[in-house]
Write a structure and sequence with these properties.
The chain has about 300 residues and is an alpha/beta fold. The chain has 13 helices and 11 strands. The strands form 2 sheets. A 6-stranded mixed beta sheet has the order 2-1-3-10-4-11, with helices on both faces. Strands 7-6-8-5-9 form a 5-stranded mixed beta sheet, sandwiched between helices. Helix 2 (about 35-40) crosses helix 9. It is globular, with a radius of gyration of 22 Å.
Length: about 300
């Protein structure tokens, strides 16, 4: 009888406190994503269960959050807005990093200035950050997307079309950017160094999970910063963890990783409270709507939240 009572008690307790699913973080082959593996190896998640889910395609990673298959993912300002109405609600919880000059416009040698781009063929992946960045770059030269011929291509295809001479310019990212310029007898006319504040990487959290597990999300953000500190203090050990994940030599990976600028917690709190963030998101939202990538108006206030970081 005593054993039966104990057994029933354990069953009732397990029903009252069912084991929680791990918080699933979507990652890709991209240096900032590998920081999570350092956090995992060093035990910085503590009692918070975390599963790192690796994707080969960034689109699959993004969609996984909005279909409820992951709970946190790496994105950009553009992607956070573009995918915001494609399923479950996600919100930017942290501005993570940027790499200035990582995206840019390559043109043929005959093009001497931005004004020469009028009526030229430009390959770009439509519905991506590069599409929006091309729009901003053309603005710098007093042009609009209506003044050029957009040739829809993936970023790799854009590079190949440029090298083959099928287009006059292409907007892409590294390493395709440098390869296009070298092999296509071209030159880099403009990069994201000319557009600071627009090409920013962020962490997006699934809203429904965040509301129930705020403290665990805060632990994960703390782990993000603890791992960065470990990388700074123990670079050799950290690079040995991260480089193999990218299938890169340690020296090459270290150079790539060190090209990133990471945003501190203080900078995040300031940015979340600033008008600058809302202004940039509004500008991107307008572009998405005007180009019919999403005909519906996006409420930018619903796309980010300081709930996770404000108490840290």
């Amino acid at each position: 009888m005593k054993n039966i009572v104990i057994l029933l008690t354990l069953v009732l307790l397990s029903q009252c406190n069912p084991p929680k699913d791990p918080i699933r973080i979507g990652v890709n082959a991209w240096p900032p994503c590998e920081i999570w593996y350092v956090a995992q190896k060093m035990g910085y998640f503590g009692d918070t269960k975390v599963e790192l889910v690796r994707f080969s395609a960034w689109t699959d990673n993004m969609l996984s959050l909005y279909t409820g298959k992951t709970d946190i993912t790496h994105a950009t300002y553009f992607n956070a807005l573009y995918y915001s109405q494609k399923g479950e609600q996600g919100q930017i919880i942290l501005t993570s990093d940027t790499i200035l000059g990582g995206d840019g416009l390559v043109v043929k040698g005959a093009i001497k200035s931005g004004a020469d781009l009028k009526n030229k063929k430009i390959a770009v992946e439509v519905g991506t950050d590069e599409h929006f960045l091309l729009f901003k770059t053309l603005e710098l030269y007093g042009l609009s997307v209506a003044d050029v011929q957009i040739i829809p291509s993936t970023s790799m295809e854009a590079m190949n079309k440029f090298i083959k001479g099928e287009v006059d310019a292409c907007y892409t990212y590294e390493p395709f950017l440098s390869q296009a310029a070298t092999e296509g007898s071209g030159k880099v006319l403009s990069t994201t160094k000319d557009l600071p504040g627009y090409m920013i990487d962020v962490l997006v959290g699934r809203s429904s999970v965040m509301q129930k597990r705020k403290k665990e999300y805060q632990t994960i953000v703390k782990a993000w910063y603890k791992a960065q500190q470990y990388i700074r203090e123990h670079p050799a050990e950290a690079m040995a963890i991260m480089a193999p994940l990218e299938k890169m030599e340690i020296a090459d990976y270290k150079g790539f990783f060190n090209g990133f600028t990471f945003y501190s917690l203080v900078e995040n709190k300031e940015l979340m409270a600033s008008q600058k963030l809302k202004s940039i998101l509004s500008e991107i939202s307008d572009f998405i709507q005007k180009t019919n990538l999403n005909p519906n108006k996006i409420d930018v206030n619903s796309v980010y939240t300081n709930e996770i970081i404000k108490d840290l």
